[in-house]
Design brief:
- Helix content is about 40%, strand content about 15%.
- By secondary structure, it is α/β, with parallel strands linked by helices.
- The protein folds into four domains: about 60 residues; about 160 residues; about 190 residues, 3-Layer(aba) Sandwich (Rossmann fold), CATH 3.40.50; about 90 residues, no CATH class.
- The strands form four sheets. It has an eight-stranded mixed beta sheet, sandwiched between helices. A three-stranded antiparallel beta sheet has the order 1-2-3.
- A hairpin with a 5-residue loop joins strand 1 and strand 2.
- Helix 15 runs antiparallel to helix 16.
- The protein starts with a helix and ends with a strand.
- The C terminus is likely disordered.
Length: about 550
């Protein structure tokens, strides 16, 4: 019996590999070892370019129906493995294919966890034909769990998790096809088209932002300027180019309505500073004053800035549901990061035009996740480190002037960050600063900062909440789901806040020194059997703590 490798090479000597050649190989490969060799040859860089789409599909179907699921695409720390069989991920080479939409979604989620696991590279074990088969299966699955589409077979969380897992697997395959040509290039384009459609249709704000950011991070793996421009367009959903002027100044409106709560001890001086900037006092009552100023923009439009100043932090977010309010601001002490989270607890849901929140307090980056959990569709500007009254005033005033001029976020950010006297430390995070935002967010609460997290997880659960109502603590029953890492992320931000207040430790706090890295899970059989939480540091590889 001829060696499979030798047979394939002899058939490809003429620079072609036809369906007839593929049939000869399939007729020859009888044992599991020979079928596995066919699978391996499909990934051979010398042969793969010769395999047309129909030949690839014929060989991939042959491998799948011969009961060979591959050598395994990878394994999780708990020992669970993933194999590929007929375009579907299974737990063993001889496992039956999933027969229900939910079962398929669960198998895809298990694969996505491996695709997103550091150190794993499942695509290295996949041929282009197998990638296409996976793509086709995913596309069918997505028709059953589309965003905004009701399906009695899915809960909202199950549907969102399948969309998230689909995006993770597709992104990794798209990146693996970098610099490919022929069929690989066409496949990459089709994957990109699917990913763009997913991101544009997504209704969940956290998942939408995650899809947009991580697709943009792989922009250099695609091959044409047009494809890169398409990715940039999707990224605008994550990093808006402009404040929502279309909503604020709709129907001929020429008034910008701002509400700013300020710390009691700063109230008098801040009102006086605004008056010195040309604002006029229109209304006044105990603990509250309304100021106005008219400004003309370069287009000649006269915009009235109506600024309501309120004494004290209480009720900072009360106007988030007001139909006429555009900007909701706070300027005052952070209370070591506790003041604003306390105000968020009883805050109303957002209503009316899209809001911009401005939180001018010390180390505002530490509360970004909590603010965006409450108001995922609103925009946010806040501080990196400790801040001072004069620079907070300068930042808010510069923002308001930029809004009057209808400037883009990049220009507003530059004007705030580029003023050496008032903001020499580049202390303000705006929607234009997407890199800091993605480092300080953990939208799915798995403990990994979004910048490190390649899988947006809807399966996190909190052990304490599962057991704290029992007289006798009971073991948590949801072991197939992912342990909540909210405390990991919160603790990393507490450390950053502490560093931001200390001049002695100032050198460590630059550029957000610590970010949540999730949990470290020891491999099966490892002497270290405990689960650790991980913080990543910009200068050191990582810091583990129980």
């Amino acid at each position: 019996m001829p060696n499979i490798s030798n047979l394939v090479r002899s058939l490809a000597n003429d620079g072609r590999f036809t369906l007839a050649d593929a049939q000869k190989v399939m007729d020859t490969a009888k044992t599991p070892e020979e079928v596995a060799e066919v699978k391996k040859l499909m990934r051979d860089p010398g042969l793969a370019p010769l395999l047309a789409g129909d030949v690839q599909r014929r060989l991939a179907n042959f491998v799948a129906t011969s009961g060979v699921g591959g050598t395994g695409l990878g394994a999780l720390p708990n020992g669970g493995q993933i194999f590929l069989k007929d375009g579907v991920f299974v737990s063993a080479p001889d496992a039956a294919l999933p027969t229900t939409p939910q079962a398929y979604g669960e198998s895809l989620y298990g694969a996505a966890r491996i695709f997103s696991e550091p150190g794993q590279n499942p695509t290295a074990h996949m041929s282009q034909a197998e990638m296409r088969s996976v793509l086709e299966r995913i596309k069918v699955g997505l028709t059953q769990c589309r965003a905004g589409q009701a399906n009695p077979d899915y809960t909202d969380t199950q549907a969102a998790q399948q969309r998230s897992a689909s995006a993770t697997v597709l992104r990794e395959m798209m990146a693996a096809l970098k610099n490919s040509d022929g069929q690989g290039r066409l496949l990459q384009a089709e994957i990109l088209q699917t990913l763009v459609g997913l991101a544009k249709e997504e209704k969940n704000p956290g998942l939408r932002d995650h899809m947009a950011f991580h697709l943009h991070a792989l922009k250099e793996t695609v091959q044409t300027d047009e494809q890169k421009a398409t990715i940039n367009g999707v990224f605008d959903a994550f990093a808006p180019l402009y404040p929502p002027y279309d909503q604020w100044f709709a129907n001929g409106n020429r008034q910008l309505n701002v509400v700013c709560h300020t710390g009691s001890e700063f109230y008098k001086s801040e009102v006086e500073t605004w008056l010195s900037e040309g604002y006029i006092k229109k209304e006044e009552s105990p603990g509250q004053v309304v100021l106005e100023k008219k400004e003309k923009n370069p287009e000649g439009e006269e915009i009235t800035i109506r600024l309501k100043m309120v004494k004290g932090a209480r009720g900072t977010f009360d106007d988030m549901d007001d139909e006429n309010t555009h900007i909701v601001a706070y300027s005052g002490h952070s209370g070591w990061g506790k003041n604003m989270p306390r105000e968020l607890k009883n805050a109303p849901d957002a209503n009316g035009p899209k809001k911009l929140m401005v939180i001018n307090q010390c180390c505002g980056q530490g509360i970004i996740n909590k603010v965006r959990d409450k108001y995922p569709n609103s925009e946010l500007m806040t501080t990196r480190y400790s801040s001072y009254e004069s620079e907070d005033h300068f930042a808010l005033n510069t923002l308001l002037n930029g809004v009057v001029d209808k400037s883009c976020w990049e220009s507003i950010h530059y004007n705030i960050a580029g003023e050496p006297w008032h903001n020499e430390r580049n202390n303000y995070i705006t929607p234009a600063d997407e890199f800091t935002r993605i480092k300080t967010r953990d939208r799915d609460h798995d403990g990994k900062a979004d910048i490190l997290d390649r899988l947006y997880d809807f399966n996190t659960f909190d052990v304490q909440k599962d057991t704290d109502e029992a007289f006798q603590p009971q073991p948590a029953s949801r072991r197939n789901e992912v342990l909540s890492g909210e405390r990991v992320h919160t603790s990393s931000q507490i450390v950053n806040t502490t560093l931001g207040f200390s001049e002695y430790l100032d050198h460590m706090s630059r550029e957000n020194a610590f970010i949540g890295g999730g949990f470290f899970e020891p491999q099966v059989g490892s002497p270290d059997s405990k689960k650790w939480c991980v913080w990543w540091n910009v200068k050191s590889p990582c810091l583990k703590c129980r």
